[in-house]
Amino acid sequence: MSREIKFRAWDLKEKKMYYSPYCIDSQNMGGSICVTPGDKGCEDGKMGLYYGEEIDFELMQYTGLLDKNGKEIYHDDLWKGKICGVDDIFQIVCSPPQMGALWENGVMPFIAERMQEGEIVGNVWETPELLKEKKV
Description:
Layout: E1 7-11, E2 16-19, E3 23-25, E4 32-35, E5 48-50, E6 57-66, E7 72-74, E8 77-83, E9 86-95, E10 98-103, E11 106-109, H1 112-115, E12 119-123, H2 129-132
């Protein structure tokens, strides 16, 4: 089974999420990332190029899974659902070889059907307060 490989990027300076970054190239462009706001590609002429300088983006990979509302699940998303009988908000990890939900002292591997029973309620960048509200 194959899955679509795509990313989103959190701009650490602007505190803004970019979906479908246009290109990611850490070697050929001197440690660069190019992002296009609004998923418009290059047609609007507003592509941001960041090269030869410190990259202030966090990249998050798409897991290939959808939540119960059909929303794509990415690395660092906050998923609300039940795992091993515990209803809570879990941080999603998609950083091979670890792919799953953070669980106590490790990562609980994805069970695709289980992910479709819960929903994405935010992510660690835009809604970090949801993790602080967690019952531990």
